[in-house]
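re: ur question from earlier - yeah i can do the single chain one, its not a big deal. heres the input i used so u can compare w yours
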Amino acid sequence: MKLLASLASPYTRKVRVVLAEKKIECELELVDVNPAENPVNAHNPLGKVPTLVLDDGTALYDSRVIVEFLDARAPINRLIPDETRERVAVRRWEALADGVLDAGLLVRYETLREKRERSKAWTDKQVARIHRGMAAMAKELEGRNWCHGDRYSLADIAVGCCIGWLGFRKPGEVDWEADYAGVARHYRKLMERAAFAETVPQVPK
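and the output i got, formated as tokens:
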């Protein structure tokens, strides 16, 4: 298998953390998806990372599909529960974390536009989404060791990748360490795991 990836992508990080936790060997190919014509297009019509290319040439995307495939592929360290309600609860956390990331990415993309083309109202709307999402995470993490239930799961991975990217790119100057202490504490705990410590976001070289 080969993972088409960017070290700055939080969604790539999610897949890389799952690969490490599941102890699955996978080739990593770093790609630049900024150009309209890029190496990912041949495998993923959306031209986005992460994209996982299987041994038979089948390509999987996006990160939610990839992590579900990886979790089912290896029986050790299951990260997504089998029971329906438990499974939905974990995927709900993932949807929340990914939604906060989506808003953060929109803020970042807006800052890359010409200043005269930027919309403060649009940016403010996305920043408000980030704050609501972070507040919801902080509230649900109160008194808990893990996002869901009594064990580490994909929920924690998704939240950790979200928080790590917010600290890396700082969209809208959201200060999660100061404003959401419970979330910051959870991230510090996650960073004690090798899978997180070894996959921190990086600016592409």
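The mean pLDDT is 96. not sure if urs matches, ping me
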